[in-house]
Amino acid sequence: MKKIIQTENAPKAIGPYSQAVEHNGTLFISGQVPINPKTGKIIEGGIKEQTIQVFENIGAILEAAGYKFDNVVKSTCLLDDMENFAAMNEIYAEYYPANPPARAAYGVVKLPLGVMIEIETIAMK
């Protein structure tokens, strides 16, 4: 049976979706954007600051569901400009220093709320 995961330590959904859904030991985290959950606002700064906030949001959801970054098996990164790939990758590597998950990264035309990055995550126990 699926279980809806919701935490106040990550941004509220900005549409008809859940922050995350757990089913049979697999956690599916909806795409996270760089919104500060305390203010509800997109954080200021460039791609590095936005990537850090996205990972802080992912970490809060992982924790709320009883998972860790070590449990992440797949990430999908969406960037509004592939010129930001190297800078995003630098921050990404800090959260997955060993045995990183499988990953895809795409350049897209536009992301919700005009952000630079969105990351979707799948974790398993």
The CATH architecture designation is 2-Layer Sandwich
Summarize the helix and strand pattern as letters.
EEEEEHEHEE
CATH class: Alpha Beta
Domain module tally: 1
Strand content: 25-35%
User: What is the averaged pLDDT score?
Assistant: 97
Residue ranges: pLDDT <50 for 5 or more in a row?
none
Write the layout of secondary structure elements.
Layout: E1 3-5, E2 20-23, E3 26-32, E4 35-36, E5 41-42, H1 47-65, E6 72-79, H2 85-95, E7 102-107, E8 117-124
Parallel strand pairs: 6-7
Antiparallel strand pairs: 1-2, 2-3, 3-8, 4-5, 6-8
Q: What does this entry show, briefly?
A:
The protein has 125 residues and is α+β, with helices and mostly antiparallel strands.
Brief descriptors of the model:
single chain; 125 residues; alpha+beta; 60s Ribosomal Protein L30, Chain: A; six-stranded mixed β-sheet; two-stranded antiparallel sheet; 2 helices; 24% helix; globular
